[in-house]
Amino acid sequence: MRVYLSGPITGLKPDEASDWRDHATQRLVGEGNFVVRDPLRGTARSFPKCRKFVRRNYPDVPQMSGRAFVMRDYHDVENSEATLCNLLGAKIVSIGSVCEVAWAMSQRKILVIVMEEKGNIHDHEFLKECGLVFHDLDVAIDYLLSCGGEGAEEDDDAVA
Q1: Sheet harboring 35-37: ordered strands across?
Q2: What is the 3-state composition of the chain as percent helix, strand, coil, each rounded to the nearest 5?
Q3: Which of 68, 70, 104, 67 is nearest to 85 (CA)?
Q4: Which of 7, 32, 38, 159 has a CA between 20 and 30 Å from the CA of residue 72?
Q5: Which domains does the chain have, with CATH numbers?
């Protein structure tokens, strides 16, 4: 199963944006043989010295343009069976993450959203009704693992 990792990037330090993605990737690939699509690949991780990711369009660098990010991220959501959107600790509203949730929902993907039980800046009924909401990242990952990876045909719970 292919999973897209959605979650805030703007305003975060590189490790704040990538640590949870690395953890989710290790679990999903290692325990479930999933294929993971990370929006930080190839671009944001190319700037390890940057203090924070900022809203900036780089018209002279096509692969860093807003259009490039939107096109690639939409393609990733479209070609994934599931989206894991981690909003834990979000300090500002993540417009990109909200768009990715809407794309996944409209395409009837498995959509797992992780946010605090109370007080998250994204706490809104529209968002919560789009997918299955968890309050712990590892519990959300466990749920995705239960949905099956590439080796799902060997699932012990499968009915013959």
Answers
A1: 35-37, 2-6, 82-86, 110-114, 132-134
A2: 40, 15, 45
A3: 104
A4: 32
A5: 2-151 (3.40.50.450)
The phi, psi pair for 107, rounded to 5°, reads: -95, 10
76 neighbors 21 (Cβ within 8 angstroms): no
What residue type is 33 in one-letter code?
N
The candidate with the shortest Cα–Cα distance to 86, out of 40, 135, 32, 29, is 135
Q: How far is CA 127 from CA 1, 12, 18, 45, 141, in A?
A: 24, 22, 23, 28, 19
Looking at this protein, which amino acid is placed at residue 12? L
- Indicate the pTM of the whole model: 0.84
pLDDT in tens, 6-63: 998 877 777 778 889 999 999 999 999 899 999 888 665 555 555 555 555 566 667 7
